Every structure is written in structure tokens, then in C-alpha cells.
User: Fold this.
Amino acid sequence: MKVAIDSRYAEEKLTGIGQYIKKIALALDSKGYEVFLCYSKEPQSEIKGKNIHKIILKSKNRYFFEQILLPIFLISKKIDIYHAAGNIGIPLFCPTPSILTVHDVIPLVYENYFCFSKFPLFSKISYYLRTLISVYKAKKILTDSQFTKNNLKEKFGLNFDKILVVPLGVDTIKKKTKRIIKGKYIINNGGIDIRKNLFRLIEAFSKIFQAHHNLRLVITGENPNLTPKLKEYAKSLKISDLVLFTGYVSENSLWSLIKNAECLCLPTEIEGFGLPVLLSMAAGTPVITSNCSSIPEISGDAAILINPLDVNDIVKGVERVLSNNKLRETLIKKGLLRARKFPWKNTISKTMKAYEEVIR
Assistant:
């Protein structure tokens, strides 16, 4: 079977959706599928496999890529299934049975999401139309969570039968790690974005530090627009030396940072899944995270859930973990068990079953 995957989210450093594309591609390759990874430019990190083909449909225009170059390629190679793996990307006139993975529709449900765009209204309308085309043209839609499935129903009135919840996976294999940062620290590895609630996290840390002077806050991820503002805010609270922005870190380095942290604090306002929660649980790191969106669905009872809009609640959640060793050990044990319920093999198996349903 020939499967083409929209791999534009895997063109840069492999995070989030890029890692998802890599997992799917390698699994398909191991099962003997012929996999065509469709990029709009040369990828920074090539995904290699015996049956994996790198396809460059060179274009700086996303619409030209999706509506012109992609359909021509699908026809020319007689592709059996096209998988749009990053929320959108199905052509209006798609010549091939298609599957769409919707990780979230946050840009459509989070207020002011496009506030950093040069043309906010145009960006929002464009995103909505591309999503609209994709969800209606797809023969099957996969979502990471029930929360995202409900959002799709609310925004587009889709039939629930068309949508299959396929949670992401997490590797639970124990890895040997070397400590990258000395001393004690709290980690936030949810990425840097307006919805990640990092200003409140930094404010909360400024209060936590008053009772824990040997503690630092580590924030991973890249965002050239938002990071300078966050640094300036930390400076205004006189804790700039205690808040470390690492930028992008490799998969192995990230695991080390998570594994050696006192806890993960992820007070995000909205998530389609919340993979950092599972990564921390798999690493044996206690989790403090939000009581909203998809997070309770993913975390179960294995995390301290807080109100992300209440700085004092964030402080209390972290303080509970830092000051109560019994609670800490309980969270670690529950977290490890919770992470084991989300193996990648289940994600792959359900995805392949969806492929089979689509081409019947």
C-alpha cells in the first residue's frame, strides 16, 4: 500500500506534530507500507527507512502546495491513502482517499490566538476555511482526545461517527541520562505560545522562590516574538537570573531535563492533548497542570490539577509537591502507571485500522 503523509510539520526541528509524523512513518515502514513524506522544502532532520521516500513539492505558498502540487503528486504516484497529519492540508479536489489528524482546533477556540499575526482577521479566516475544507473532505478524522472531538462537533457540526479518538503515545523505556542543569529546578516543556500561560507561571515562581531559594525555573522551546517579553517580565520581578530559557533542546536532552526536575508545572490554558504531561509521568517526574481542556482526560488522577488562571492556585499546587514527600511519591507511582496506558503501539494500531476502513 502506498501512503503519502503531509510532512510540513516535520520540516524544522522535530517537536510535537513532527515527532508524531516520524512515529507514524517509521511504523508504516516496518509493516511494509510504501511511505511518501511530502515536504514543501528540504527538511532539517530526514526520516529514514527502507520504504520511506522523501518528496519535495517545493513551494513557499501553502495554498499552492495543498491545492495544486499535492493533488498532481497523488495522481502521478497512484497513492492509495493520503494522510494530512497536522490539522489541515486536504485539497479541495483530493484525488485520493484521505485521513485527517486534528490535534486541536485551538486557533478557532482560543480568543486572540492570532494577535501576533500581521493580519489577524485574514489569518483567522484563512485557517477556518482550510480547516473547513479538510474536515469535510476527509473520509476519516483522527483526534488526540475527546476534547478535540467535541470541539470539532461544536465548530463544524460533524457526525461523531466520522471522528475516531486516537490518543498519542509515549515511550516508557527507561533511558540513561546525564544531568544537564545542576541544582533543583521546575520545568515547563510545553512550548512557548500565548496560550501556554507563561506570564502567570513566572509570576507564580517569583512567589514560590521566596520559600525555596535554591530553586530555578526552566522553560524550553522557541518563540522569537514572545520569549523577549517573557524575559522582560522575569526581569521586572527581579528573578531574571532564576528563569532559564533553553530554546530548542534535542529529544535526549529534553528527557534529561524532565527526569531531573523537581516537578513539571504546566499551567496551560488550553491543549488538544498535553503530551508534556505524559512525558513527565513516564520519566517519573511529578506533574502539576491545568484542570481544563483535555488535560484531566489525559492525566487522570496522576497529577495535581490547578486553575491556570489563578496564580495563587499555581503556587499552592507546586508547594504541595515540594513540601510533601509522600504526595510526591504517590504522584510518581500513579504517573508511571498512567503513562503505560498510552503506548505508541496503540496509536499506530488504531491509525492503521483507520487506513483499512478508508480504502474498503
